[in-house]
Amino acid sequence: MNRRELLTGLMGAALGSTALASITSASASLGEKTIREATASIARRRNRFPNVVLRTHENKLVRFYDDLVKEKIVIVNFMYVGCRDGTCPLTTANLVEVQKLLGERLGRDIFIYSITLDPEHDTAAVLQRYAKSVGVKPGWLFLTGKDDDIEKLRKNLGFVDLDPVVDADKSQHIGVIKFGIEPLERWGTCPALTKPKWIAQYISWLEPQGERPNGRPKQKRASGRNLS
Amino acid sequence: MSIEIIKSDRRKKEEIAGKYMQEIRDIVNARLSRRELLRMGLVMGGAGLLAMHGMQKFRPYWAHAQINSGNLKLISPKNTPSEDQLPIPEPVRPTVLNPAPTKGPNLSLSALNGFTEADRPDHQRWTQFGGVSDTLPGFDGPQYELIAKEVVPSFYPERDGIPSYPIWMFVDATNPSYVGPLRFNAHYGEPIVVRIHNALPEDNHGYGINQTSTHLHNGHNGWESDGGPIQFYDKGFFKDYHYPNVRAGFSKTHPTSTYIDADGRSHEVPGDFRETISFQWFHEHRFDFTAQNVYKGLAGFYTLFSNDINLDTGDETTGLRLPSGEYDIPLIFADKVFDPTTGEMFFDLFNLDGMLGDKNTVNGKIQPFLEVKRRKYRFRFLDGGPSRVYEFFLSNGQPFTQISNDGNLLPKPLVRQSIRLGVAERADVIIDFSKYRRGTRIRLQNRLEQVNGRGPTGKILNPGDNVLEFMVGGDAQDDSQIPDKLLDLPSTDVSRAQIRPWHFERRQGAWVINGEFFSPDVVRAFSKQNTAESWILTTGGGWLHPVHIHLEEFRILSRNGGPPPKEEIARKDIVRIGQNAVGSVNTGRVELFLQFRDFLGKYPMHCHNTVHEDHAMMLLWEVVE
Q1: Nearest residue in chain B measured CA to CA from A166
Q2: B49–chain A Cβ distance below 8 A for any pair
Q3: Does B45 contact A6 at a Cβ distance shorter than 8 Å?
Q4: Angle, helices A87-102/A196-206, rounded to nearest 10 degrees
Q5: Model confidence, pTM
Q6: How high is the ipTM of this complex?
Q7: pLDDT digits over A49-100, tens only?
Q8: Residue A107 to chain B, least CA–CA distance (Å)
Q9: Sheet containing B299-305: which strands, arranged edge to edge?
Q10: Which of A10, A195, A226 sits opposite B49 (nearest CB)?
């Protein structure tokens, strides 16, 4: 077996043949270095999240990474409908404002995912009613699933408290939102109750062509007058 | 095999690592180098890989989602300690900037790379400190040019066979072949301009963002040159940072002051000579990505010499005669973790508590060694984060002679058995190797137990982790000394100081200060220029926070109502509050004295556990007229 065959065989085994086909066809003319980097990046992005199966509030089954996150800009938070001790209702209200600010981009390239911490009570039907009452537009999904899968996801995404007693108590759940541009592997976090305008801004700041604190990046800035 | 493997004991993990190594050796026989395979991101080669493929769940990034705690349970590949020499930071070389610096953002493109200067306010006090004119380009003084870019150094020794991966560092444009920590040798009375280009790539290899704002910690600078969290710029831009290298107080409280040096000569200089700073560092500060970008390598040293008053001169035959030149070595301690399957440096993007690495690096190498001569050395310790708190001991029980805290000379040298540092804290220590025989080996050890990013447990381990090994060599001339007295402290007149309380609290995984989250458009305090205030920082227990305030050094007046420990009777810019802040005691309350002199603008106060900082344990305050 020559070296190239061995390499191809190894890569195929690592990634599965469809992924390999797409890489090798796309980069047939590229050097080994680019293939190497592309493979590493694809594998790393895929490995960042457990590809668990979830059920949307529209009662569709989806895979977390493949269907919800891959190639998208996403906002993720955890909540539950029965949350009475405070922040879920406020967070949801906050995200409704963010939804307004995102406008047409929601559902096109930016997606909001609110995942329940209480899959036992928050079935798809319950979440459907909740989503309707909140007024979510396409692009914002409430998600439920198997207990184990949601736990796996929650822990992977770091919505955990080091104190196991606190961690086990839903009513003391972590109140942050995580946002990111998946293909660029840029991930940030902010408090769920950050002002909606800033949530939208923080995301825009992550985009190569997005807004900047002092104006757009590619804009020719003004002459040397005082800009403070 | 399943994910349980990762949870199980160390022996099993080493068994896997052993099998992995065997597979690699098989591949080597097939004439593929191990480096090539690992670089391709493959777990194993040949039969091993196919067997592993059934191990669906053995994936590195799952490891950060640990079952019972937020701890990262990745185990980095084994390294050979004391194999690589400690990299010695190289001084940044002065250059002539083209185009010449201007008071406002430059209208011309960089001759080096065509970059444009980013938006910024005008440099404050531009013509007072080196600027030639308010309107025309020109600067009278040393100029430097750095490029933030991707480089490919190695953390592991060659013989461990771990491939190198791209990281991000500052490179000296005038010395581009050198890849390693940089050091500015700056001097009071000599303002400088540093032009920093952002040439970072869009491809971040897993974490970080190619936007940058460089903060000189803790420079007494105008806010336009301070490198705050919201002042970042993109690839294709540069920014000129103006560092006056002047002591605080020059504009009002101490237009000049006179220092009488060790030889009895007097020196009159602008500002309060008692505010002389000796050791700063510079690092990336982009909002929400500070932890990622600094971890990725964007940090360096700034040593500030006060030869203008013959104090900390950089020459061990003058002034305080502290060890100098090749015997003055800055050390940045940064714990890292490496993906066990590829060897690439790994960052836990979803951790809220703080990230700990299992490999101790110093100046970019894991557990290096340093050959030392049989004489005194001045080491400048810096905790480079992201989250770990260190307590350093020497393996043979020899104490340190500490001469500064957070880069500021103490009133007198202190003999200390151990030195505790939180993120961004500094301590200059003198170690004397003259009484040891050639061939003696002494290890610098971190003995403070820490198991998660919240803070240390307070327990002192023995021996702890070896961080750096000193190997005693031959003799060398030593003209340095340890003086009896270093530098008097400035006065702290609290009588007319406005009091501001700040309560730090965790709220559902994120941080509030006085009940509010961080907001880029909210200024939480307006402090009057050239006045003093007393800031009271309080917090609950369970977490350790090294709190940092930009612009000026402060004094710690009290800890929990009582006097601070002797090493904190000093000027500092980081104060540890919370659990095990000092010893194994919770500091729930500190009282600080600080001033707001000479410059105007918005500056932050924030926790310097960079993971807390990013989530967002921070607020903005402003100096106003």
Answers
A1: B508
A2: yes
A3: yes
A4: 60
A5: 0.87
A6: 0.86
A7: 999 999 999 999 999 999 999 999 999 999 999 987 768 999 999 999 999 9
A8: 24
A9: B90-91, B182-187, B299-305, B279-284, B214-217
A10: A10
